[in-house]
Structures are given as C-alpha cells and as structure tokens.
Design brief:
The complex is a heterodimer.
Chain A: E1 2-4, H1 12-22, E2 26-31, H2 39-46, E3 55-57, H3 62-65, H4 69-84, E4 88-93, H5 95-100, H6 104-110, E5 117-119, H7 129-144, E6 155-159, H8 168-181, E7 185-190, H9 196-200, E8 207-210, H10 213-227, H11 239-253, H12 266-271, E9 282-287, H13 289-302, E10 306-312, H14 318-327, E11 333-334, H15 338-348, E12 352-355, H16 357-366, E13 370-372, H17 391-403, H18 409-417, E14 466-467, H19 469-476, H20 480-496, E15 501-502, H21 504-513
Helix pairs in contact in A: 1-7, 7-10, 8-17, 15-16, 19-21, 20-21
Chain B: E1 15-19, H1 31-37, E2 41-47, H2 49-58, E3 69-73, H3 76-79, H4 85-99, E4 105-110, H5 112-116, H6 121-132, E5 137-142, H7 152-161, E6 173-176, H8 181-194, E7 199-202, E8 218-221, H9 227-235, E9 239-240, H10 248-262, H11 267-292, E10 296-299, H12 306-316, E11 320-326, H13 331-340, E12 346-351, H14 353-363, E13 367-370, H15 372-380, E14 385-387, H16 389-393, H17 398-418, H18 426-429
Parallel strand pairs in B: 1-12, 2-3, 2-4, 4-5, 6-7, 6-8, 8-9, 10-11, 10-13, 11-12, 13-14
Helix pairs in contact in B: 7-9, 10-11, 10-17, 11-17, 12-13
Classes of the chains: A alpha/beta, B alpha/beta.
C-alpha cells in the first residue's frame, strides 16, 4: 500500500484507451464498475475531442456481483459490435474487474463475433498508463499486422502517437512533412489516425520511425523481429537531435535529398545577444523519460543552460535516464512520488523548471518559473495553434516556450538594478504575464539602526547559524530566483568556517567563494 | 396537460427504468468538495490507481493547496496476501497523521477494489479510532462505484457521521447538506431573521462544531441526494421537515415556510422577512428567463439534482422539460418536488447511455444537461449542453444565488447565439 496525493500516470486501461481513442473503426469493451467512465472526460474535456471515446463499459454495480457479471460483459460486447460495427474489438478489464476474474478475453472468444477480438492483459496493481498503451499497441500489431511485400518506393510507418499525448498531433504532422521532404512516404501512422485495416498493412513499410518509446517501443521491437523492419532510435527533439534523426533516416532509407533548414530559427535566436541572459540558468527537468532526456540535451547544448537536476516518473526509462544523468554529473531522480519531486526541486533551487503540469504547480508554490515539456497533460497542452515539440519547427517552439516563463533580458537587469523600487520589484513578476503588481509596503527607516547594533533576526538554523538583521535584509535584495540558493550557500559557508552569525560580510564572502 | 390535477403533477407519472452502461462518476467525487467544507478532515481512499486518477481528473487536474485527501493505493502484495492490508493501512494512517497534526477527523473511504476484496474498513476505523482517539475520530464510508453514484458519496459520508453525533433533547433545526460557506451564512441569516433557531449544520466546518441530535431535532435537507443520511437521522429519532429544495425563489420560499411552520412561525412572517431578497431573486431570474423561456431541456442522470432543477426551470424560467432523468428517484424526499412539475416530461431512473443518446438525438432539445464525458460530443452534433458538475460546484441555493442558477443554464444558449455565425455546426443550427 502506498499513499499517493497526485499521480503522474493513470491506470493501464487508460493507456489502452489512449490507443483505442487515437484510432478509427476500432472499439474497446472495458469490463469496469460504474464510475470508471470518468476516463471519457480526459478525452472530451482535456483534449476537446468532439466524439465519445470508442469505449463501452460494463459499469457493473454491487447487485451485479452476486449475479452474472460475465453475462453483463457479453451483452456489452454484443451491443457494442452491433451498434458501432468496428473492424476489430479490444477487450480488457479495469482494476476492479481484474479482481472478479471474469476473463473478458476468454468470454469474447466464445461469442463468435465476426471481427478480430484482441484481449489485453493489463495488470492494474503492478503497471501503469504507459504500459497499458504500449501493450495495447503491441497486441494490435501482433494480431493484425500481416506479412507482406515491401512497397516499391521507400516508405516507413510513424509509430507512437496516441490520443491524449503531449503534442502528439503536431509531432506526427511535423515528422511526416520532414520525411516527405526526404522523399519518404508514410505507409501508416499509428495508433493515431489508423484503422485496424491500416495496422494489417504495416508490414509493407521499409522501416519504422518510433516517436515515443513510452507507447510503442514493444511494437517497434516486435515489428523488427517479425517483419524485419528496423526502427529509428533518435528522438528528433531539438535542432541537433533533428539533424541526427535525419542522418539516421538517410542510413535506413538511402535518401540523399537535401533538407531545407531555412525555417529553423532556434539556433540564431539562442546565439543572438539578447539571449545572453540565458547563460548558465540553472534548470531542473522532470517528466517522462523520453522528453526529459531530449530536453536535457537541448537545455545544455542549444540553450546554454546548466542542468542542475533531472529525472523521470516512468521506471521503464530508468536505465537510460541514469546513464544520461551521470554524463551530466548528476544523479537521476526516478520516482512517481510527487512530494519527493517537490523536495528535490526545493533542494536544487533551480532558476527554472522544465517539467509536467505537476511541476508547474510545484514551481508556483516555490516561486520558480516552469515550462511544460511532458505529459501528464492539461487542457493548456492542447493549443489551437500548430505547436510541435519535434523537428525544426519543434526546436523553434521549444525556444519560445522555455523562455516565456522567464523575466526577459533587459527587464532582468533593471530588476537587479532597482530591486528596491516600490513598484518595480521582483515580486511584481514578469511584465508579459498577467497579474497585477502589488506595491511593496514602505520600510520603516528605523531598521537601519541594525547596522550599529546587530541583533539576531532569525532563530538558529539546524546548523546553529544566526542571520543578523542587516544580513537578512541584504539577502532580500538578491533576486528572488537565486535567493534560496544564496541563503543555503551562505549558511553552508558559515558552518564550514565555524561562524555562529552571518553578517553582510559573510554573505559577500560566501558569494565570492561560490562564484562561478 | 390541463387534464391532470395540478396538485399531483408528475407524482403518478410512470417511471422509465433503464439498466445498461451508466455514464456517471462514482461517489469518490464528493471528496472534492467535502474536503474543502470540513476543514479539519482528511479523506483517505483505500483503492487503486484508478481512484487516485479519478480524483485528480475530476478536481480539474490540480488544486493549488495541498489537498486534504489522498489514496492508499493497493498493490499486488496487498492482494496476494503477502502483506497484511490492515497493518499496511495502520502504517500509512500513522504516517499521515504524523505529517498532518491538524487533522481531527479521518474518513477511510472504501472503493470498488477494497469492497471486492472485502477489506473491512469499519473494523479498521474502530481500531484506528482506539489508537488515535480522542484527538482524531476515524470514520468510514463507501465512495465506490459499485455502491454509489457521484453525489451519493456525500450522502454516504454524512450518513456515516450521524451515529457518532452526541445526543440532545433540545428543539433545534439541523440543516443537512454541504453548502458553500457564503450560501450557508445567507441561510443562517434568513432563518435568524425569521426567528428559527438554534440552527445547526451537518457537516460542520470543524469536528468541534458538530451538531448534537435527538428526538426534538427537526431537520431539513438542502440537497436532494441525501437519502441514507435521511434514514440515519430518522433512526436517531430526529424529525424530517418535508419540503421542496431551496432552488429558485419559489423553492427557497417553500423551504423556509416549511421550516418556519415546524417552529410555529406563520407563512406571513416569512413573507415579510424575505420580501426584499425574494424580489431580488425574481428579478435576477427574469433576466435569464428571457433566454430560457419556451426552450426545451433534457436532463441526463448525473447529480440527482435533476428533479428539483427541472421544477425550477419549468416553473420559474418558462422552460419545457423533455426528459428528466436521475440516477435514483427517492420517492420520499422527491415527492414534494414531483408534485410541482407539470405532467408531460418522461421521468426516468438509471441509464443505458447509448439508448438515451438516441432519444436526445431524436428530441433535439435546446439544452441537454449532462456529464463532462458527453458534453463536447453532443455540442459537436449541434446540441447545446450544460455540464452538470458545475451545478454541484457552484453556489446555487437560496435567493441570492437563484439568478446565478438560472444563468448557468442561459449562458450556453447565449454563447451559442453569439457564436452562431462561426460555430462549426452552423449549417445544422441554421436548419
């Protein structure tokens, strides 16, 4: 038993629903108690889908438990087939139905439905949402993909995008366009937009482009083994990774066509002098493994940030994540405990967070700006405009969205120069965001007397170091986004020097000591 | 319509009962508002990852403050008997209470999986009460989907509190149902002016303010979904005040008069006290009625507010009800409401969602009140909707909110009219 306040991933059947909802002419029958239909709103509200997810729930209640829940399932499956006439049917159980052991797969098999029935084993008490998506797509491929001759021209499948994915809609479009520029046609894009009939002809492609290992790595490996289709390993997030991806695709396809980079603005935007203020900004990254690993490289190599912490919530990506973190001189944080992430961020005191909607709230609490780079998603992660994360346009989007939460270049300098201005102070927030600046309360000049006679202002810390009032006041003049770090560094410095009190001098000695 | 006696309304209308897929929340959803209402309570769901995910999704992904609820997620080892689930629960509770020393009431909330594996949370609550009492009172109720539908979670929670309430012989009014603070304060002020008192509330904001009850307690429900709480109060000997619910100017007046009568106060006194707020409410409702008059409304089953709200919309806003559907029809507590609704609409209980959507498509109502999973798909078909959860999350009771309640229904129609020229479904809308 484990106490959870917020979760990064839903249960595995929600992952399977993401696959089913992304596809067309497929239906899913979910053996589940009343109430599990809440999952529909993820798709209709968060993603603003204009159709109900193609899922029929048995919605059994207590009174059905003693009676015939298996019969209920069969009725639901028969009705779903008659009403929606899908090309194939996925059947699965949610966590509660797993406990009553009706075996929906076995039941559906005995019904003699005239379409392929694909049973899913989703161990709800061990695995999570990404597993459910990955497993559902794997089983769809295993059941439906037929051996067939390769297309004459070089084609590939684009695999991984699902419903409710972080920018999957736009990534698929961007990468499809990039491949087309390279003379490579997309045979099937799946799960998003594909029908079961499309899955059946996936074998005709020469190779697979794997966009999201979280949702399609098992299928990519199976297709490689059974259909001899190699798959791409590079995730094209950022300018460098997109170029590496193009090289990988050239190797797999033999394409020699040039790719136009004229619309890639991110490298110059980062190199132009206005971006100097981004230098060495300390960022903390957290999210799914794929997005965090890609973003860490972009942050360091393409934005000039300093990565001060990184991690992921999906244990499946723990190994590559740990390896990359080591390369950055860090220890990866692998956890799905939101409070643990909050503690790690507080400890690292970054100037910016690149995370999920959960980290956005952590940032709000701690006063640290945050840009969202990964699922779990929120209605805000489905913008009306085209906004991919992948490819050259994706690199442009990353630059804009990562810089947006920050106080901008010259404004940051002005804040540092005039940080005691009662209207224009750091708590007023960036001018390009909403929210009204509150004037600071006017200080009482009597406080100046502290310089003459230092008095302890703050009770002893755990290391028994006392901040003198004047030092405490000086600390407040340091911009808010580095204040936490300055406080900790100064306390550490004082402790190491065996000092009992922190004066203004101690503060600046510590600053010099830790100067980068 | 006029052939029927106005006194019985829809009382004798045969009820269409359906069983099939039900597109509803489970009772855990009630925790979203209960944990804010009861400021020293913590709700610990004993369940699965699905339960945690539901609470997070229903709460609009995130609430800013640290929530006073959480999920003890059952894992494989709890189910396989490799771990003693009770020992695990005791450990998690001890850890939680240690971290939140401000908590005075802890609710262990049962879920579908905890009920299917027959984890006895009432014994766990007794055991934990003994361990952490008297500082912390531990109670339990079920919010599972197999036992409860959406607002029934609040009913189960309040019902679980009733047996533990202290006893009194005093003649007091007990107002039952979790209301937003602003609404509760307005109600208390009105009742005070009318001369009804003392008045107590269930749930109270803090455990120390819990009401006492006894044979002289008179209680009035403010929410139409509190059937089990009603029965639990009757078992304690408290006396029910039968009345329509305080939605709209008429409902509020009838509710106040029924309460006043129980305390020997005349309807004329009530009329005198409420004249000004009632006139304000009627004026505010009239503004929204300009949009709503003559429009046809279809209620899908969701919050159990459907019957009183249909009464309000048909009698005070000039709407016409096509179908009024509710998860459960409590004949005892809905009787006064049904009598007020003019015959005509289909009254239905339960749901087979696909069949019901067929009826919505056939009827093409001007407004469909439905859950969040259905709203956008119906809008995309050119049908205006009002998502029902907002009716539970918004202050809508008593006079000062009557206009807000009416405009919750008017807004989708006004918005549709504003966007008529650019709406993706303009071809259908223009038919």
């Amino acid at each position: 038993m484990k106490l959870a306040v917020w979760t990064y991933e839903g249960p595995p059947h929600v992952g399977a629903m993401r696959v089913a909802t992304g596809m067309r002419d497929l239906h899913m029958v979910l053996h589940a108690p009343q109430g599990d239909t809440y999952a529909d709103l993820l798709f209709t509200m968060i993603e603003r889908r204009d159709h109900r997810p193609p899922v029929s729930y048995t919605t059994f209640q207590a009174r059905d438990l003693g009676a015939d829940t298996a019969g209920l399932f069969m009725t639901a499956a028969r009705d779903a087939h008659a009403r929606f006439k899908p090309q194939a049917l996925l059947v699965a159980a949610s966590c509660t139905a797993e406990l009553i052991q009706d075996d929906p797969g076995g039941l559906a098999e005995t019904m003699g439905l005239p379409v392929p029935v694909i049973p899913l084993e989703l161990p709800s008490y061990q695995r999570k949402e990404n597993f459910g998506a990955d497993e559902a797509f794997l089983q769809l491929c295993r059941t439906l993909a037929r051996p067939m001759a390769r297309t004459e021209r070089v084609t590939c499948n684009v695999i991984g995008p699902t419903a409710l994915g972080f920018r999957h809609r736009d990534d698929a479009q961007e990468i499809t366009a990039l491949l087309s520029e390279m003379g490579i046609e997309v045979n099937v894009c799946a799960p998003m937009g594909a029908t079961p009939a499309d899955i059946a002809r996936m074998g005709a492609a020469h190779f697979n482009v794997l966009l999201y290992p979280e949702t399609a790595e098992s299928a990519a490996r199976w297709l490689e083994r059974e259909h001899g289709q190699p798959f791409t390993k590079t995730i094209p997030i950022g300018a460098n990774a997109t170029r590496a991806f193009i090289e990988e695709v050239r190797t797999l396809s033999g394409s020699t066509l040039p790719v136009d980079e004229s619309r890639l603005r991110q490298p110059w935007w980062a190199a132009s002098v206005d971006s100097t203020y981004l230098t060495g900004k300390r960022v903390f990254l957290f999210g799914d493994g794929t997005h965090v690993m890609a973003a860490a490289k972009v942050a360091r190599d393409e934005m000039g940030f300093e990565v001060c912490g990184m991690g992921c919530y999906n244990r499946e990506q723990a190994r590559p994540m740990r390896a990359l973190a080591k390369e950055f001189g860090l220890t990866a944080l692998i956890t799905d405990d939101y409070l643990e992430v909050e503690r790690a961020i507080e400890e690292a005191a970054p100037e910016m967070i690149l995370g999920t909607q959960m980290e956005r709230h952590i940032g709000k609490r701690l006063g640290i700006p945050c840009a969202v780079i990964s699922a779990p998603v929120h209605v805000q992660d489905f913008p009306a405009r085209y906004s991919p994360q992948m490819g050259f346009e994706g690199a442009n989007v990353l630059f804009d969205t990562w810089v947006h939460p920050l106080v901008m270049g010259l404004e940051e300098h002005l804040l540092v120069m005039f940080r005691e201005d009662f209207e224009f102070h750091d708590a007023a927030g960036p001018s390009h965001h909403g929210g009204k600046a509150q004037p600071l309360p006017q200080e009482v000049p009597a406080a100046e007397a502290d310089h003459a006679m230092p008095t302890p202002a703050v009770p002893a810390t755990e290391d028994n170091v006392i901040w003198l009032t004047c030092a405490e006041k000086e600390l407040k003049k340091i911009p808010f986004f580095v204040r936490g770090k300055a406080r900790r560094n100064t306390e550490k410095f004082a402790f190491e020097k065996g000092l009992q009190e922190i004066s203004v001098d101690t503060l600046y000695e510590a600053k010099a000591h830790y100067a980068r | 319509m006029s052939a029927h006696s106005p006194a019985t309304g829809c009382t004798d209308t045969p009820v269409l009962r359906e069983r099939g897929q039900r597109e509803v929340f489970c009772g855990l959803t009630g925790i979203i508002w209960l944990h804010r209402k009861m400021q020293d309570a913590f709700f610990l769901v004993v369940g699965s990852r699905t339960c945690a995910h539901l609470l997070q999704s229903a709460a609009g992904v995130m609430i800013f403050a640290e929530p006073r609820f959480g999920t003890a997620i059952l894992e494989e080892k709890d189910l396989a008997g490799m771990a003693d689930a009770n020992a695990e629960l005791d450990r998690e509770v001890a850890r939680l209470l240690d971290r939140r020393p401000d908590i005075r009431q802890l609710f262990l909330v049962g879920s579908c999986p905890s009920e299917v594996i027959k984890l006895d949370l009432s014994r766990a609550a007794e055991r934990l009460s003994a361990a952490h009492g008297p500082k912390v009172r531990v109670l339990n109720f079920s919010g599972s989907g197999i036992e409860t539908t959406f607002t029934e979670g609040e009913d189960a929670c309040l019902a679980s509190m009733v047996p533990a309430l202290p006893t009194t012989e005093a003649k007091e009014l007990l107002m039952v149902g979790a209301l937003p603070d602003v609404v509760e304060d307005q109600a208390l002020s009105l009742l005070g002016q009318i001369g009804v008192g003392p008045v107590r509330c269930l749930p109270a904001k803090r455990a120390a303010m819990d009401p006492a009850i006894g044979p002289n307690t008179r209680y009035a429900l403010t929410q139409p979904f509190l059937g089990d709480t009603h029965s639990a109060l009757q078992r304690r000997g408290a006396q029910h005040i039968d009345a329509p619910f305080p939605f709209g100017a008429e409902g509020t007046t009838l509710w106040l008069k029924a309460v006043a009568a129980e305390f020997g106060i005349s309807p004329e006194t009530v009329d005198q006290v409420v004249a000004a707020p009632r006139a304000r409410a009627e004026k505010a409702i009239a503004a929204a009625t300009e949009t709503l008059r003559g429009k046809r409304v279809f209620f899908m089953p969701d919050s159990q507010l459907e019957i009183p709200l249909a009464r309000f919309l048909t009698r005070e806003c000039g709407m016409q009800a096509v179908e009024i559907s509710t998860p459960y029809l409590h004949t005892t507590i809905h009787r006064a409401e049904l009598a007020l609704i003019a015959p005509g609409p289909t009254i239905s209980e339960g749901q087979d969602v696909d069949l019901q959507i067929d009826r919505v498509r056939a009827a093409r109502p001007d407004l469909t009140v439905c859950g969040l999973g259905l709203a956008n798909p119906l809008e995309a078909e050119g049908l205006a909707t009002k998502w029902a959860i907002e009716l539970v999350f918004t202050p809508v009771h008593f006079y000062e909110q009557a206009g807000d309640l009416a405009s919750l229904f008017a807004r989708p129609l006004r918005r549709r009219a504003l966007l008529a020229a650019s709406h993706p479904n303009r071809m259908e809308a223009a038919e």
